[in-house]
Structures are given as C-alpha cells and as structure tokens.
C-alpha cells in the first residue's frame, strides 16, 4: 500500500491527516510540537520520530504555518525526499512555490504546489476544493489519494499558478467579507440586526455575482464602457455612503479604498467608464 505522510498538524494539517485515515490510507504524521500528533496516533496514524522519517513516504504532504517553516522541513528531510512526491499545501506566493519547485527538481523530487480553498471542517467533504500546479505526472499518479481531501483541480505545469489562483480568490473572499462587516456596522447603527441585514443581502449578492463574468470580459477586452452605472455616478453614491457612516459614527475603513480608486479614476477623466475601469489602477507596473 502506498504510504502518505502529513507534516504539520495545525488545524488544517490535522484535518488533512484525518481525511487520509478516514479513507483507510497508511498515514504517517509529524509536527515540531510532538504532542499534537497524539490524537491522530490514537486514531491510527504512525508517529514519525523525525522529519526525515516522515519524508520517507511515497507521498509527502507539507502544510505548515509559512514558507520559512517549509524550508526548515525541506532542509531536515532533504536526504529522504529524492524519488518521492512532495505536495506543498502551505499558503504562499507564486514566487515561493516556484523556488521550491526549482529546489525539488535539482534533487530528483517530484513537486506539486497546492492551494486549499476550504476551512479545516470542509476537508474530506464535497465543499472542499484543492488547487494544484506543477508536475502533471505526479498529479495524475496521486489524484485518487489527493481526492480524499476534496475536489481536485490541476492548473498546469507552472508551480506558481495554484498559489496565484489561491491568493487572488482569497482577495475576492476578503473583499466580500469586508463589505459584509461594513454593512453590518452601518445597519446596526440604525437598529437592524446582523441576521436581518444578511437575510436581505444574500439575494442581492447572488444577483450581483451573475455579472462577474461580464466584468471579467470587459477587463480582458479593455472595454470599460457602460450602459448601467458610471464611475461618476458611483462616486456620488460613495459620498452618500460615507456621509451615512459619519452620521452614524461608523468608520468607513473597509469600503474607503474602493471609493478612493473610483475617485482617482474619475479625476483622471474616466468618469463615464463602468466600475471595471478601476482595475487599470491596480495592474502590475
């Protein structure tokens, strides 16, 4: 039977290991704070004595705090990793993913980088999606095992693409949550409960989400013309929004950056454009 190791047993790493155990897979675990492995060992996992021991499995999954911790694991397990498949599910940047891919290739280690689009409680359910990029051969070979964690999506041979999608999608999530929290604060100042507000917000957001592909196509085409809401009109709306927050004593911090981008674009002479036009201020220079 193929052996799997999970290195890093925080909330997410422990969830990954439990998914493997639930699927009946031979699972070895290691964590720098050894006590964190206790519950998983009681559930059937094998405790590795060292990082190198954990790196002796066919498939080695690393899910640690950050890329400094990833490099610590790689340095300690380097001798055992050649000939293995390394899957790094630690959140990181595209550049960090590519650096690990180069390091692995130089040592005969097959590498996949990944981005987990789920919370720990979603792992091993249909609601979890894990993005992968890097070695397609490794993805194909281990796909059945990786699907234990959730829906798998392969994004190509560039090891940085999983991280790029991961972080960009998180931008969308945090932007949405920021708007939610700003709205809850403003509604709350008027005596509206978070539950009542959210009940009305959800249908509006669902309708708005339907327009996202149109925004993406406009950006790709460089055509920000609109027959709906111009930036000049939305700039006026933001002034009203800010005034309502000021009247209520509610900080405008979470939405102010979007207002500022709209105002800059209007000042630059693009007031008749649609909202997608603000992306021109965000593009890499």
Task: Provide structural commentary.
The protein contains eleven helices and eight strands. The chain is of the alpha/beta class. It folds into two domains: 3-156, Rossmann fold (3-Layer(aba) Sandwich); 165-281, N-(1-d-carboxylethyl)-l-norvaline Dehydrogenase, domain 2 (Orthogonal Bundle). An eight-stranded mixed sheet has the order 3-2-1-4-5-6-7-8, sandwiched between helices. α4 (67-77) links the parallel β4 and β5 (85-88). α7 (161-189) packs across α8 and α10 (231-248) packs antiparallel against α11. The longest helix has 29 residues, at 161-189. The radius of gyration is 23 Å and the shape is elongated. The model has no long low-confidence stretch (mean pLDDT 97). Residues 3-155 form the 6-phosphogluconate dehydrogenase NADP-binding domain. Belongs to the HIBADH-related family. This is 3-hydroxyisobutyrate dehydrogenase-like beta-hydroxyacid dehydrogenase.
Tag the structure with descriptive keywords.
285 residues; alpha/beta; Rossmann fold; N-(1-d-carboxylethyl)-l-norvaline Dehydrogenase, domain 2; 2 domains; 8-stranded mixed β-sheet; oxidoreductase
**How many domains?**
2
CATH superfamily of the largest domain: NAD(P)-binding Rossmann-like Domain
Largest sheet report: 8 strands, mixed
**Rg calc:** 23 Å
How far is the first residue's CA from the last residue's CA?
Answer: 50 Å
Report the order of strands and helices: EHEHEHEHEHEEHEHHHHH
Strand order of the largest sheet: 3-2-1-4-5-6-7-8
Strand content: 5-15%
How large is the count of helical segments? Answer: 11
Shape: elongated
* Annotated CATH architecture of the largest domain: 3-Layer(aba) Sandwich
Q: What is the CATH domain class of the largest domain?
A: Alpha Beta
Kindly name the structural category. alpha/beta
Mean pLDDT rating: 97
Family: Belongs to the HIBADH-related family.
Keywords: Oxidoreductase, Signal
InterPro entries: 6PGD_dom2, 6PGDH_NADP-bd, HIBADH-related, HIBADH-related_NP60_sf, NAD(P)-bd_dom_sf, RedAm-like_C
Pfam families: NAD_binding_2, RedAm-like_C
């Amino acid at each position: 039977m193929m052996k799997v190791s999970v290195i890093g047993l925080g909330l997410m790493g422990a969830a990954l290991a439990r998914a493997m155990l639930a699927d009946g897979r031979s699972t070895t675990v290691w964590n720098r704070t050894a006590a964190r492995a206790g519950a998983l060992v009681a559930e059937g996992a094998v405790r590795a004595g060292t990082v190198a021991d954990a790196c002796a499995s066919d498939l080695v999954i690393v899910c640690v705090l950050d890329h400094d911790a990833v490099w610590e694991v790689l340095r300690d397990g380097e001798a055992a990793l050649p000939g293995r498949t390394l899957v790094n599910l630690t959140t990181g940047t595209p550049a960090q993913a590519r650096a690990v891919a180069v390091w692995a290739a130089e040592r005969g280690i097959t590498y996949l980088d990944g981005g987990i689009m789920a919370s720990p409680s979603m792992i091993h359910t249909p609601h979890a999606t894990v993005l992968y990029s890097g070695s397609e051969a490794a993805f194909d070979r281990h796909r059945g095992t990786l699907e234990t964690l959730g829906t798998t999506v392969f994004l190509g041979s560039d090891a940085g693409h999983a991280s790029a999608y991961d972080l960009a999608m998180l931008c969308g999530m945090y932007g949405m949550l920021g708007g939610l929290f700003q709205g809850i604060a403003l509604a709350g100042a008027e005596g509206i409960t978070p539950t009542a507000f959210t009940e009305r917000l959800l249908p509006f957001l669902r309708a708005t989400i339907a327009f996202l592909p149109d925004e993406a196509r406009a950006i790709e085409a460089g055509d920000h013309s609109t027959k709906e809401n111009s930036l000049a009109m939305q700039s006026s709306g933001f002034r009203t929004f800010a005034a309502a927050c000021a009247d209520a004593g509610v900080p405008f911090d979470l939405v102010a950056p979007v207002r500022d981008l709209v105002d800059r674009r209007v000042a630059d002479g693009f007031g008749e454009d649609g909202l997608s036009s603000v992306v021109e201020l965000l593009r890499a220079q």
